[in-house]
Amino acid sequence: MKIASLIIILFFATNVNAQLTKVDLQASGLTCSMCSNSINKSLKTLDFVDKVDANIKNSTFEITFKPNAKVDFDKIKKKVEDAGFTVANFSANYKFNNVQIKNEQHVMIGEKTFMFLNVTSQQLNGEKTIRIIDKGFVSAKDFKKNTAFTQMQCYKTGYAAACCTKDGLVTGTRVYHATI
Fold this sequence. Notes:
This protein is α+β, with helices and mostly antiparallel strands. The chain has one domain (17-179): Alpha-Beta Plaits, CATH 3.30.70.100. The protein has 5 helices and 8 strands; from the N terminus they run H-E-H-E-E-H-E-E-E-E-H-H-E. The chain has helices at 2-15, 33-44, 73-82, 140-146, 153-157; strands at residues 18-28, 49-55, 60-65, 86-101, 106-109, 112-116, 122-132, 175-179. Strand 2 (49-55) and strand 3 form a beta hairpin.
């Protein structure tokens, strides 16, 4: 019983060591201000989104969230796709407090599981931007280029596979792949 309690405490302790402050995404396929407006309206329908600021010149959107909201990156991506476009770049800004990361190792940040690729081992503190490099969060060309940084099956699918169980993940757990 004591071991289970300790594991739960450690799990929640690592989850509170980072706070998501905003997401910046760049969409591709936009040709006019109506396209940008379509994405903007679509993103605003998400219950966790507080504000969306669009920059028509470079097809980017800065998304901020309601306090204590559970943010779902996949739902953000889907809203862009539902509007008829694709995500070309997706970055999340976090305020970190002593979060240790290592290359090709899973880490819980907030309520999400991440695997960092092409990074040096480091401790994250303060405001940092991480770039999500999963399929659908970057261009197809960038996704293919990033496959050189790992042989882990979870990068191809976005979900924990047998190769991830060494880090204690259950097969099928959503894993976001990121770099700094």
